[in-house]
Write a structure and sequence with these properties.
It is a single chain. The protein is globular and about 55 Å long. It has a domain of about 190 residues: Rossmann fold. Helix 2 crosses helix 3 and helix 3 runs parallel beside helix 4. It has about 290 residues and is of the alpha/beta class. Helix 4 links the parallel strand 5 and strand 6. It has ten helices and eleven strands. The chain has a seven-stranded parallel β-sheet with strand order 3-2-1-4-5-6-9, with helices on both faces. The structure holds NADP nicotinamide-adenine-dinucleotide phosphate. NADP nicotinamide-adenine-dinucleotide phosphate binds next to helix 1 and strand 5. InterPro entries: NAD(P)-bd_dom, NAD(P)-bd_dom_sf, NmrA-type_oxidoreductase. This is Butenolide phosphate reductase ScbC. It holds the Pfam family NAD_binding_10.
Length: about 290
């Protein structure tokens, strides 16, 4: 059992994990930076680079998590095997002596029948953690405002059946700030067993959010609402696979349903400062990176 707190952060080659790691480094928290490709991990003061470790490689994960007391587990890319991957990473953590897991889930992960396809295995991972006996906190991240830029096509059009549904889009920085704050204070048990829903400051339709992205970037991002039939037909025409269509159309349909039309005070309550509007995201992925 490790004696002092050391936070292992996975997914550090990605947008969220890298921000959590940077914020922990700024706070002087000892940490392990875990990734599948250590050559792509940015070194940070007070941090050790660990890996290569993929979630489903139990032995490599066990070795990478050696000496960690808290594990920040960034959810994997959707592969159809996410629960198995997450469970494998958690088991490796237990075997390595981890005392607490902070898991990055998603808003709307309310059950096995969650309308957004990618939310379903988040919910199962949440249940897995609840039964693990470990100290754990679930962070249900709001939808990233930056995804709007990634979903745009080469004409900067965001096309889909999102209707007028509203979402409290959130920035990576705010999600990272909440998680880093909780990760840095292992002795505080206040958030054990909690589900913290991290949202931005206001609910906006895709149309309104896209206008904010356009204003922030000075680029002509625009929303083109589609019916479900139009959305399918347009994607088939562009050679997008059935699974990808199901994933993204279920994202738009979840937005349209209004289920994500809520804000929380989690950013303010945990970090002490208000959540940023998406116009201050400061980072916009290239178009067509989340098609
Ligand atoms: N809230 C939202 O709106 C939203 C939107 C999109 C995704 N997400 C979820 O949130 C997660 C984090 O978001 P992000 O923006 O940081 O995504 P990202 O930039 O794609 O980063 C994902 C990170 O997870 C790592 N990873 C993925 N699968 C893995 C596996 N099987 N084993 C080990 N590492 C693995 C990746 O490693 P490599 O560099 O080796 O690939 C990468 O470092 C995503 O992975 C996804 O599950 C949420």
């Amino acid at each position: 059992m490790p004696e002092k707190s050391t936070v292992a952060v996975t997914g550090v080659t990605g947008a969220l994990g890298s921000r959590i790691a940077a914020q922990l480094s700024d706070r002087g928290v000892p940490q392990l930076l875990v990734g599948r490709d250590p050559a792509r991990i940015t070194e940070l003061p007070g941090a050790q680079v660990r890996g290569p470790a993929a979630y489903d490689d139990s032995e490599a994960m066990r070795e990478a998590l050696r000496d960690a007391s808290t594990l920040v587990l960034i959810s994997s890319h959707p592969t159809g095997r996410r629960l198995e991957e997450h469970a494998s990473a958690v088991r490796a953590g237990i075997e390595a002596g981890v005392r607490r897991v902070l898991y990055v889930s998603l808003v709307g992960s309310t059950g096995p029948d969650a309308p957004y396809r990618n939310a379903r295995d988040h919910w199962m991972t949440e249940r897995y953690l609840a039964g693990s006996g470990l100290r754990h906190t679930i962070f249900r991240a709001g939808l990233y405002g930056s995804t709007i830029a990634a979903l745009a096509d080469s004409e900067l059009a965001v096309r889909g059946p999102g209707g007028d549904g509203k979402v409290a889009w959130v920035t990576h920085d705010d999600i990272a700030a909440v998680i880093a704050t909780v990760a840095a204070d292992e002795d505080n048990t206040e958030h054990d067993g909690e589900i913290l829903q991290i949202t931005g400051p206001e609910s906006l339709t895709i149309d309104a959010a896209t206008k904010q992205v356009a204003a922030a970037t000075g680029r002509n991002y625009h929303y083109v609402p589609q019916t479900l039939d139009e959305a399918f037909a347009w994607r088939w025409k562009h050679g997008i696979s059935g699974e990808q269509i199901d994933s993204w159309l279920s994202w738009y349909q979840t937005v349209a349903s209004g289920r994500l039309d809520f804000t929380t005070d989690v950013v303010k309550r945990i970090t002490g400062r208000p959540a940023k509007p998406i116009s201050e995201a400061g980072w916009w992925p290239s178009p067509k990176t989340a098609w």
